[in-house]
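Structure ticket #2291
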Amino acid sequence: MSPLVIILWVCNICFDTLGQVAFKFAAIAPNNRDSWYYWLDLSKNKWIWVGIISYVAEFLLWLAFLTLVPLSQGVLLASFNIITIMVVGRIIFKELLTIYRLIGMLLITAGVVFVGMS
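Resolution: structure written out below.
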């Protein structure tokens, strides 16, 4: 893989992870959970906007990434974001990493390594 492909891949993963974390922060922030007031509070939350902007940036990076790699390889490499999201979720939100999730992370990592070597 060329350096540009690696840079686009890493940036894509970073923006996807940032978007997921921002949406999680936005979802747990509002105190008022009654009907449409929840959505009103959510629309005023800075994290929802960080998430939306992150997803737009990720989408543009994804398009650039796909212009340089085959779709089958790109989709496999993009699955690495599952690992970063699980690790960041563990660190920030204290979410559990069960043995099945850890095995899944190892299998995803192995798949990414094998695809990256081809």
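Closing remark: The chain has a mean pLDDT of 89.
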